[in-house]
């Protein structure tokens, strides 16, 4: 069917052709106004088609039977368009539109009432017919009405439609009162309208035309079709946010309804298919994702349920409950699936952040986000959230506790911008306490003894001990329901907290029996009594402090219960006594805590100093060593322990041990400073924790993860993944540990006797017992090593765990014996480099640096005794021969390399090399070969070349070291960077020159390596070394120095003209030189090269080994392929495919079969020639793995 527009034009043309013979009748003169329609008024009538006038739809057709009645016409400016989907085509009889308004155009402002002309009755009138009324009913003396934008057309009533009559009052119009125009006014254009519309109505029923575009340009300006609110130049409000989701289409609704029905009937898999199909059609359907989440939950897939729920929340981002639910699910899944902890943590933080964006005052969202930020160490962001909560909700005791802890942790960083944090926490807690004092307790936010402890600890943190003491007593009375006894604040002691009434009865205001005895001394918790003692001690009131310390006296007969339930209180009391200078009493509190190992590194150092003050160096040494062995983050305590122990050893004339300890302390201090500096830089780069900034970057990544995980296909019901039982849900926010609360430490693991430090001040029997335990442990380790060697399977991928653990203890024990190493090497193995320490001596603790400088000057490591011990040349250590010790070193190094710990393997080989015991030539050869094997395992070409260089230097005039160097470079899968490096080229050239001088002059002296001292060894050879010449030639060859490489290849060819490797190298050198741009006679070079290549081919082709013959075919084919002669290359490639060797036994140098390489190259030749059948045949036969 043709388009309606074309049919309408055909009908119009036929109508004009039919009426062309009829006489033209003059038209009736119009009113005083011009009959020529204004261009703007004419166009405005056309532009008004898109609106629905009074809610009327197109009526029945104008045609009655088969007759037609011609319509009278009016000027185009008075055509009032009936809104419909029909297009009228009036013949324009006016000039083109002008870019200005006509003189008779009445502009209607927005504030003026609009008079609208209604030329026909309302929809209820029975005479309404056709797409519009005859134009003859429209009087010619009425202007075209102007429609105001924003007036709902369907809501107009006849009383609201008036016609202006120019100076007369407007009155409601009646269609019957209009005077019809005479037939003489009929225009040919308008008489064709009924035929045109009749044809067009029939066509539009099946193929309606689209609506016309809205008015634009100056029409829009003059007719005020749209008026936008004016916005200030400096910016203004603009509607932001996600667009409204589109209404789901019918096919989506159908699939969702089918999915819901399937879910009701229990067909989960079928429902999943319907939902996933709906999501495939439109992934922005909120209902589909909610239904998918329900289906995942029904199947027990909590992870999939979360991902679908999260995606649904992103589609309706203003629903805060959805974000909170997603956050709770993410927190639960983080505990259930440990391998995805970080992912779900990011989801939870993002969900809480979105909830806060929707409602900044939502307490649960603030609490959740603050807790997560606190957990990952974003303290500043956590303080902001908690600060908002305590400011707007001072009664929120959970926020108060976390806010106080975060402020204290920030203040501990030492940065001045956080110094006011504890004071802010004090003010916040004060407001909270005032709120509860005024309005009473709230069971939802219980204020208890824990909050009293936190509040007074913060006051003590800012050195307000008097305020802490006063608040502790006042708040304790308040919680014990006797807050009216304020007279106790006037006393300078704590008699109100005595167990008996002896001192309380001395106070006149005290009324015995008014309150129960449990509200006085026995009602005060032991922790707060300890605080009272500590604060009294800080204020210098020792007598009153000792009264409270009696309750936690470790010498009490019931002290076992105290040490088992409240050991941290005893440690706090001991530290307070130590800081007050009461060391003997502090030692009484420290001693009971040593046996169960309840002291941290700092307390151990303090206990050691107390022992030193008491003169017990043996116990002090044990405390300091225990502090050194503590694996904690408190590096300052470990540095202090080494410093104190170094001072003890220096006084005992054990300068070596003291020097090692003080250097360890310096290294720890440097590492701590570097860590703090790096943390400061990271914090500066991170800014204000950048949570908000990162959230914008992570939104798309999190959404992509959710989409990928939630839209996976399910083949069956997924079992519920429960890695860890979920934590019970609680209504209140998670409570954080209190500030300054002693953290629970893991029990200290017993150190290995084989690696334990030797004590200097221990008793003789203790030293003997310790040495016996150490020897027994090492003997057991040797048994494990020997048994592991005997029971190792041939198919094992590496040494067993038991072997590696025992070998590590044995190797560490060997390396700790200082007589096996020189002093410098021993310090180097410990990580101490004297030259570096002197350069950096001005950066650490001055006391440590002064001691290190003093010990280094007084220490004489090369004394006669040490030299004498080295020259005695022992044959065993701990009953084991040194050959077995060397085997253990090398096996342990190879085991570390197989485990991927290549640097540790290098250190073990270096320890074996530096030992004064393993200095024979055979031992050093084994060490460097094992070193090269470790480097080969780690693909470390630099270390491989270094090991080969040592062998070439030690076995300087042998051929095998050069072969070993080439083999290592071939086996190491890395670019040829170290093989042709500058030092290697210089060394090889120097060896060649030495060889040439020895042959020509009779003798030559080695000048040594460029990195070593001259050796002075004389070259004893009588002939040239072909391997050395070929090795240096290949180094030059891969450096693209073909001219120089050809000189050495030709020298080797002169010595051995039948060597196939030499001939092949010469031929390739000629060919590659010919392919260079600088080649002067390319034809000559190619001729020479292929002469040598064919000589090589003839030698190889005569071999009985198929691998040798295939190699000759492939090399010659590859040479022809390189210079662009494909027909010859294809012939030799085909020969290589026919002469296939048996490659079942794979050699150490790789495969011998070159079938795949030849097939691939031959396929490329076929492809370049357009032989696609040959390409497919080659691929099917040879290149399918």
List keywords for this structure.
two-stranded antiparallel ribbon; single chain; flat; 1185 residues; disordered N terminus; 2 strands; mainly alpha
Commentary on this structure:
By secondary structure, the protein is mainly α. Helix content is 56%, strand content 0%. It is built from 47 helices and two strands. Helix 9 (302-315) crosses helix 27 (691-710) and helix 11 crosses helix 27 (691-710). The radius of gyration is 49 Å and the shape is flat. The two termini are 59 Å apart.
Biggest sheet, spatial arrangement of strands = 1-2
Mean pLDDT: 74
Counted beta strands? 2
Global morphology: flat
User: How many distinct helices?
Assistant: 47
Q: What is the rounded distance between the termini?
A: 59 Å
Structural class call reads mainly alpha
| Helix coverage percent | 55-70%
What portion of the residues fall into strands of 2 or more residues?
Answer: under 5%
Return Rg in Å: 49 Å
């Amino acid at each position: 069917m043709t388009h309606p527009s074309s049919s309408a034009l055909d009908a119009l043309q036929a109508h004009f052709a039919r009426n062309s013979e009829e006489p033209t009748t003059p038209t009736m003169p119009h009113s005083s106004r011009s009959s020529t329609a204004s261009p703007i008024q004419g166009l405005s009538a056309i532009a008004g088609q898109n609106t629905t006038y009074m809610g009327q739809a197109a009526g029945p057709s104008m045609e009655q039977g088969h007759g037609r009645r011609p319509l009278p016409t009016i000027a185009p400016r008075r055509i009032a368009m009936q809104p419909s989907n029909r297009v009228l085509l009036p013949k324009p009889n006016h000039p083109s539109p002008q870019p200005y308004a006509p003189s008779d155009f009445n502009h209607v402002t927005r504030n003026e009432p609009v008079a609208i002309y209604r030329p026909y009755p309302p929809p209820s009138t029975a005479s309404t017919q056709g797409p519009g009324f005859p134009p003859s009913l429209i009087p010619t003396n009425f202007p075209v009405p102007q429609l105001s934008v924003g007036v709902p057309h369907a809501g107009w009533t006849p009383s609201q439609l008036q016609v202006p009559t120019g100076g007369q009052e407007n009155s409601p119009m009646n269609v019957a009162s209009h005077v019809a125009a005479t037939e003489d006014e009929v225009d040919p254009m308008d008489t064709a309208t009924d035929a045109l519309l009749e044809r067009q109505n029939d066509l539009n029923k099946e193929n309606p035309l689209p609506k016309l575009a809205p008015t634009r340009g100056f029409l829009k300006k003059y007719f005020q079709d749209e008026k936008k609110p004016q916005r200030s130049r400096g910016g203004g409000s603009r509607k932001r946010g996600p667009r409204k989701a589109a209404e789901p289409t019918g096919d989506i609704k159908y699939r969702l309804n089918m999915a819901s029905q399937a879910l009701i009937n229990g067909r989960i898999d079928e429902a999943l298919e319907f939902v996933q199909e709906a999501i495939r059609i439109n992934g922005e359907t909120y209902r589909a994702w909610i239904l998918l989440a329900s289906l995942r939950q029904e199947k027990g897939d909590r992870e999939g349920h979360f991902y679908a729920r999260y995606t649904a929340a992103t589609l309706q981002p203003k629903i805060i409950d959805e974000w909170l639910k997603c956050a709770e699910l993410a927190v639960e899944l983080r505990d259930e699936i440990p391998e995805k902890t970080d992912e779900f943590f990011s989801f939870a933080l993002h969900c809480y952040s979105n909830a806060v964006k929707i409602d900044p005052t939502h307490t649960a969202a603030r609490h959740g986000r603050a807790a997560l930020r606190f957990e990952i160490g974003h303290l500043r962001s956590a303080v902001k959230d908690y600060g908002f909560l305590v400011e707007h909700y001072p009664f929120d005791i959970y926020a108060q506790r976390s806010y106080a802890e975060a402020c204290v942790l920030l203040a501990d960083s030492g940065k001045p911008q956080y110094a006011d944090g504890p004071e802010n926490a004090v003010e916040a807690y004060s407001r909270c306490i005032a709120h509860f004092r005024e309005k009473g307790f709230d069971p939802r936010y219980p204020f208890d003894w824990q909050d009293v402890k936190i509040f007074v600890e913060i006051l003590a943190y800012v050195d307000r001990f008097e305020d802490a003491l006063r608040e502790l007593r006042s708040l304790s009375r308040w919680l014990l329901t006797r807050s009216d006894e304020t007279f106790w604040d006037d006393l300078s002691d704590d008699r109100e907290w005595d167990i008996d009434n002896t001192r309380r009865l001395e106070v006149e205001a005290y009324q015995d029996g008014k309150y129960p005895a449990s509200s006085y001394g026995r009602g005060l918790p032991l922790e707060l009594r300890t605080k009272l003692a500590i604060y009294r001690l800080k204020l210098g009131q020792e007598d009153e402090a000792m009264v409270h310390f009696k309750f936690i006296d470790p010498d009490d007969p019931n002290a076992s219960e105290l040490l088992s339930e409240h050991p941290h209180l005893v440690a706090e009391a001991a530290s307070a006594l130590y800081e007050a200078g009461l060391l003997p009493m502090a030692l009484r509190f420290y001693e009971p805590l040593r046996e169960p190992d309840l002291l941290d590194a700092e307390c151990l150092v303090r206990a050691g100093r107390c022992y030193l003050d008491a003169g017990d160096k043996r116990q002090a040494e044990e405390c300091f060593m225990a502090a050194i062995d503590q694996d904690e983050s408190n590096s300052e305590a470990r540095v202090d322990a080494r410093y104190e122990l170094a001072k003890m050893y220096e006084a005992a004339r054990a300068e070596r041990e003291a020097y090692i300890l003080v250097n360890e302390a310096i290294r720890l201090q440097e590492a701590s400073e570097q860590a703090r500096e790096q943390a400061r830089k990271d914090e500066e780069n991170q800014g204000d924790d950048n949570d908000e900034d990162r959230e914008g970057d992570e939104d798309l990544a999190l959404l992509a993860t959710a989409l990928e995980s939630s839209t996976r296909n399910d083949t069956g019901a997924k079992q519920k993944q429960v890695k860890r039982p979920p934590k019970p849900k609680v209504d209140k926010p998670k409570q954080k540990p209190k500030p300054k609360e002693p953290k629970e430490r893991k029990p200290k693991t017993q150190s290995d006797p084989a690696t334990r430090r030797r004590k200097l001040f221990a008793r003789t029997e203790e030293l003997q017992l310790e040495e016996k335990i150490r020897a027994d442990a090492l003997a057991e380790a040797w048994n494990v090593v020997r048994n592991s060697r005997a029971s190792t399977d041939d198919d094992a991928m590496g040494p067993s765990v038991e072997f590696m653990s025992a070998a590590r203890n044995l190797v560490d024990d060997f390396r700790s014996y200082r007589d096996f190493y020189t002093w410098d090497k021993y310090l180097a193995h410990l990580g101490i480099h004297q030259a570096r320490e002197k350069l950096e001596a001005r950066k650490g603790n001055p006391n440590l640096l002064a001691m290190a400088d003093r010990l280094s000057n007084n220490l004489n490591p090369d004394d006669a005794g040490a030299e004498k011990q080295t020259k005695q040349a022992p044959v065993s250590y701990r009953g084991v021969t040194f050959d077995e010790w060397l085997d253990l070193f090398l096996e342990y190094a190879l085991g570390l390399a197989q485990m991927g710990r290549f640097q540790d393997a290098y250190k073990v080989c270096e320890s074996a090399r530096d030992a004064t015991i393993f200095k024979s030539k055979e031992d050093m050869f084994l060490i460097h070969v094992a070193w090269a094997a470790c480097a080969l395992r780690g693909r470390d070409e630099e270390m491989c070349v270094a090991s080969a260089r040592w062998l070439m230097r030690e076995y300087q005039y042998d051929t095998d070291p050069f072969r070993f160097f080439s083999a290592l470079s071939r086996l190491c899968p890395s670019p040829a960077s170290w093989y042709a490096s500058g030092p290697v080229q210089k060394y090889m050239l120097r060896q060649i020159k030495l060889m040439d001088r020895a042959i020509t002059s009779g003798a030559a002296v080695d000048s040594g390596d460029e990195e070593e001292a001259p050796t002075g060894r004389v070259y004893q050879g009588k002939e040239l070394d072909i391997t050395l010449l070929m090795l240096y030639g290949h180094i030059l060859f891969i450096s693209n120095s073909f001219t120089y490489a050809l000189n050495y290849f030709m020298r080797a060819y002169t010595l051995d003209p039948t060597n196939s490797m030499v001939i092949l190298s010469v031929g390739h050198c000629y060919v590659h030189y010919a392919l260079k741009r600088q080649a002067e006679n390319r034809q000559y070079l190619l001729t020479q090269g292929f002469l040598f290549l064919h000589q090589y081919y003839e030698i190889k082709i005569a071999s009985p080994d198929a691998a040798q013959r295939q190699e000759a075919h492939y090399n010659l084919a590859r040479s022809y392929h390189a210079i662009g002669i494909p027909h010859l290359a294809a012939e030799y490639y085909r020969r290589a495919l026919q002469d296939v060797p048996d490659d079942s036994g794979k050699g150490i140098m790789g495969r011998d079969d070159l079938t795949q390489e030849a097939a691939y190259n031959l396929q490329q030749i076929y492809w370049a020639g357009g032989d696609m059948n040959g390409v497919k045949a080659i691929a099917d036969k040879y290149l399918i793995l």
